[in-house]
Each structure stands twice: as structure tokens, then as C-alpha cells.
């Protein structure tokens, strides 16, 4: 099988590249290295993949590139390229989100139709639910995003449905719930908390810290994504990908403090626009159709991420 992975140098994308290569398939990775966070992080993400003769990397912007030339002869497109981040999607920055997340997705789907791609897997987000009407939240819940980012990810889902209905394209949307683990973006909470602890600072938590999240380890999310791309017969077009449990932010910070050998201490700040109070995924549909079964509990996953953070920022606390 030959696959395209957009956003290949990113957090989830780079893990997916390695998964697909390890399963024996050819991969073409596309990424434009947006300046949302420093390029060296993304270059390091690709180090393992670049050593494989079955990996080709193309540095291109999907909004501007001639995608039909890249998609020819491709079986599956994993579309993970996007402008991430809830809090930065307001105001003037929204133009970037609409271009990359909406127009970029439309161009991927159009190229897939024109080149006969068999399957497109679209990376959506739990942000499309907003403050959900029930927990655990099933895919049938009414989407009601409360951030511009969530609006753009929901628009991408609608585009997938349109191309499925209008052209018969097999398109699957995966709603990721708070993915974490090694290579997590520098703007994401666990990366920020872990770096603060390693540098002797007190982590800042927005709100009380009693807000809950369905934290999903990156390896579990990648397994679900891979299955969505290779399974030949999929009933349904949207799937929740959650971690299987619900934890408070305070609990997550406490685990990181224990890993750092620091007392549990946090600084509080005001709740940010667009942040939801709770998330919790109903993953029954993904389990039934994709064979999805998250296997990494929060304590184990955070240990893996913290060890990765120590490799990046050092571990000055070990001498104290």
C-alpha cells in the first residue's frame, strides 16, 4: 500500500509515519513547517522516518501545492495537516485556520477524487462538541463548538461527508480527544507543565484544575488512525478516539510532579476563551468498527512523555 500523510512532521503525524512504515507500506509525507512552533522540533520528529528507503518527504503547503501530482497511485491519504490550538484561533489569526483547516481539507479531498484515492482519513477533534450535552459523548451528539478552531474542524468533517455523498469517496473522520505523549507540541498542557517542572518553575493551570479530559495516548490514537486507513469495509464516517478514562487536570499535574520529584504546587490563572469544562468520549463505535481498544493508562503515558521531555530540556532536578 502507498500512503500520503499530510502533517507528517507533526506530533501525531510523525508517529503515524513510523507506524505505517513499520507495517511495510510506502509513505509520502507532506508538511510545510508552519511557524506555529519551532521547526527543529518537527525536523527531529522525522529523523527515524528519513532513514527508511520507503519514505519520501515533500515540503509543500497543501493550500498552494499541486496535490494531484503527489496523490497519483496512492491508496490512502491520512490528512493530519492543520493549524492547531484553540486559544490562538480567535481574532486576526482565524484567517490562518480557515485557510489550512478548511480550504486545505477541501483541496485534499478534491485531489483524492481526481486521482482515485481509495480512502481519506481526516483528523478531526473533540473540540467540535464544545460543552457536550452528555458524558460519555457519542458521535450522535449535536456538535456545538465554542472556539473558531472547533468550527474549522467541524467544517472539515462536513466537507468529508460532501465528497463522500457527491463523489463516493471513502472518507472517515476521527475525533481525537486530547492526545498526549512523546513529541507533544510545545503549546500543549503536558509539555508546558513538564518543561516548567524540569526548569524549576511552578506550572500555571487555567481555572480550578478540576476540569476533566479524556486523555488519549498518542500510540493508541495512531493505532486507531492506521486501522481507519486500511480496513476495507467501514460502517460509519465519524469515530471518537478517546483514552478510555476521564481525569482532572489537577490529577495529571500531580502525576508529573511525582515524576519530577517535586511537591504538588500550581499557579492558577483565569479560564481561557474556548476551553471546554469536560470531555469524555464514547468509544463504542470505534471499538466495534475499527477494533479500537486504548491500552495506555495516564500514569504510563505521562511517564513516557516526561522521559522524552527530559531528553529535550535536560533533568537538572536529578542532582538536587
Which stretches of 5+ consecutive residues score pLDDT under 50?
none
Amino- and carboxy-terminal Cα gap: 51 Å
Strand content: 15-25%
Count of β-strands = 13
Largest sheet: 7 strands, parallel
Mean of residue pLDDT values: 95
Based on CA inertia axes, which overall geometry fits? globular
Query: What's the arrangement of strands in the largest beta sheet?
Result: 3-2-1-4-5-6-11
Q: How does the helix and strand content classify structurally?
A: alpha/beta
The number of helical runs is 11
How much helical structure, as a percent, in the residues?
40-55%
Question: H/E order of the elements?
Answer: EHEHHEHEHEHEEHEEEHEEHEHH
Radius of gyration: 19 Å
Can you give a write-up of this model?
With 320 residues, the protein is an alpha/beta fold. Helix content is 40%, strand content 16%. It is built from 11 helices and 13 strands. The protein has helices at residues 11-22, 39-45, 47-50, 67-71, 94-115, 148-167, 189-198, 218-230, 249-260, 284-290, 298-313, and strands at residues 2-6, 26-31, 55-59, 76-79, 119-125, 171-176, 179-180, 204-206, 212-213, 216-217, 238-241, 247-248, 267-269. Helix 5 links the parallel strand 4 (76-79) and strand 5. The protein is globular and about 55 Å long.
Which keywords apply here?
13 strands, alpha/beta, globular, 16% strand, 320 residues, seven-stranded parallel β-sheet, two-stranded parallel ribbon, 40% helix
Amino acid at each position: 500500500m502507498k500512503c500520503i500523510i499530510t502533517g507528517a512532521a507533526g506530533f501525531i503525524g510523525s508517529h503515524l509515519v513510523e507506524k505505517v512504515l513499520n507495517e511495510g507500506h510506502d509513505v509520502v509525507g507532506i508538511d510545510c513547517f508552519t511557524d506555529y512552533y519551532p521547526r527543529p522540533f518537527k525536523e527531529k520528529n522525522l529523523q527515524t522516518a528519513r532513514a527508511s528507503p520507503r519514505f519520501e518527504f515533500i515540503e509543500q503547503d497543501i493550500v498552494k501545492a499541486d496535490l494531484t501530482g503527489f496523490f497519483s497511485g496512492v491508496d490512502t491519504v491520512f490528512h493530519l495537516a492543520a493549524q492547531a490550538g484553540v486559544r490562538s484561533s480567535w481574532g486576526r489569526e482565524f484567517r490562518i485556520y480557515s485557510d489550512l483547516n478548511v480550504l486545505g481539507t477541501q483541496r485534499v479531498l478534491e485531489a483524492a477524487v481526481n486521482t482515485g484515492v481509495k480512502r481519506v482519513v481526516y483528523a478531526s477533534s473533540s473540540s467540535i462538541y464544545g460543552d457536550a450535552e452528555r458524558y460519555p459523548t457519542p458521535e450522535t451528539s449535536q456538535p456545538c463548538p465554542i472556539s473558531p478552531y472547533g468550527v474549522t474542524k467541524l467544517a472539515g468533517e462536513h466537507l468529508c461527508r460532501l465528497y463522500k455523498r457527491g463523489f463516493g469517496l471513502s472518507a472517515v473522520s476521527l475525533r481525537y480527544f486530547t492526545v498526549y505523549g512523546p513529541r507533544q507540541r510545545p503549546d500543549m498542557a503536558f509539555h508546558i507543565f513538564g518543561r516548567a517542572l524540569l526548569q524549576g518553575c511552578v506550572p500555571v493551570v487555567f481555572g480550578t484544575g478540576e476540569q476533566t479530559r479524556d486523555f488519549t495516548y498518542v500510540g493508541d490514537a495512531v493505532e486507531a488512525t492506521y486501522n481507519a486507513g486500511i480496513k476495507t469495509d467501514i460502517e460509519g464516517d465519524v469515530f471518537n478516539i478517546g483514552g478510555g478514562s476521564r481525569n482532572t487536570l489537577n490529577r495529571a499535574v500531580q502525576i508529573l510532579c511525582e515524576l519530577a520529584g517535586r511537591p504538588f504546587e500550581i499557579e492558577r490563572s483565569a479560564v481561557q476563551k474556548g476551553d471546554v469544562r469536560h470531555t469524555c468520549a464514547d468509544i463504542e463505535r470505534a471499538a466495534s468498527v475499527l477494533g479500537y481498544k486504548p491500552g495506555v493508562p495516564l500514569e504510563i503515558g505521562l511517564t513516557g512523555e516526561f522521559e522524552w521531555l527530559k531528553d529535550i530540556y535536560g533533568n537538572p532536578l536529578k542532582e538536587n
